[in-house]
């Protein structure tokens, strides 16, 4: 009690003394500062989550713990969505590019310098991060050389360490995904917009960067880069519900949850916007998965004759016979997507066809007892990231082996993970840094269970590491930790490690 009181008083004193410079810390946070040569505190100041005070803590603000509900990882950093709509990130700040949103590289979670208290999703890219806000706006922070923040770009503009403006012209986003250097969102009317790097057509607006051979250029510097510093519409994609973004490709999903009116049945075209088609009364439309961007590893699916990049969406097909093609049958039951560097996985939900006993009992359409869920993947597979046991690329979706009932999926650069309905996490693919969490470092072409991890509620795969949230609101991470992305000082771990900042109070 005496120590807690001292910490609280110290926190209040420090907050008052440096109010002009320091951010306002909330309960459950420490105030960090940099000590000057004369051992006085001179900033910059950052609020850090946690219970165990770091060595350079100036004061502890309160006793309440801030609870994580979801995690997202990239190459060198990790971010968590907190239950109150705020965010925390940790890892390497990428040479001050600001992808942590706090302006200083720290192994422990840090609160964003600019406070966000209404986030409903956070997504991480190679050099930037973005958050979807409750009202539909999107904030991005970090590097902006390729327009990743979506707020315009000027020559020589420096990265901003914290979100400072909403993505231009985007106020009704329903879903958000972030690739290496680009981002995409589903808007309120079901269309998709993207911004950032467009070298391979990953923005889907019909353009991409000119090829050196096409323009006869010898020096890459003479080719004008293709970027968009604000959202552009993806060509011909109405009624989308889900997204995925890889290193240089993007995918979207139209779920099979539309009731067609008579006009649409007759014409095959979507009904006007004033017609009520967003109901679950009928399942007349099959799901469709569309992909665009880089295709050097069959990221866009099984249609023969596709170039190595496409600037407009193509349907992921099942057959490659030029005279007989059809959308992949397994993907007609897709309900969610996740993309790695050059592969994509889909969560498949198929009706069991089993009637529910008891006339008085009513169940929602998504009730677990009415569906079986599996995972299918396509694209690059040389590290086993497709999970079918073959460890080869596949343009056709293949079913992941070794999974039970799946609730959620996530994909890293060359590995993939699935959260099962039992709370266990299964992973497959590249494992050189222990990112599969099974205690080994050998690649796995089929799913293996993450060791010593139970009761998980969310999984997020980074480039070469993975994190999960448990039902007790702890966060555990494993895999590559060279940049502090595990929330600890270790450089790698093949089994889950607790991120101490989110450890429950004992």
Structure description:
The chain has 506 residues and is mainly beta. It has 2 domains: 1-64, no CATH class; 67-354 and 365-502, Methylamine Dehydrogenase, Chain H (7 Propeller). It is 5% helix and 35% strand. The protein is built from 3 helices and 30 strands. It has helices at 2-17, 212-215, 262-267, and strands at 29-32, 46-49, 57-61, 68-73, 77-82, 87-91, 106-111, 119-124, 128-133, 138-142, 175-178, 182-186, 192-197, 227-233, 242-245, 249-254, 288-294, 309-315, 334-339, 343-351, 371-379, 394-399, 406-411, 415-420, 425-429, 444-449, 456-461, 465-470, 475-480, 492-498. A 4-stranded antiparallel sheet has the order 4-5-6-7, with no helix packed on it. A 4-stranded antiparallel sheet has the order 11-12-13-14, with no helix packed on it. Strands 15-16-17-18 form a 4-stranded antiparallel sheet, with no helix packed on it. Strand 4 and strand 5 form a beta hairpin. The radius of gyration is 23 Å and the shape is globular. The protein starts with a helix and ends in an 8-residue tail after the last strand. Residues 1-25, 30-46, 48-65, 212-223, 258-284 and 354-369 have low confidence and may be disordered.
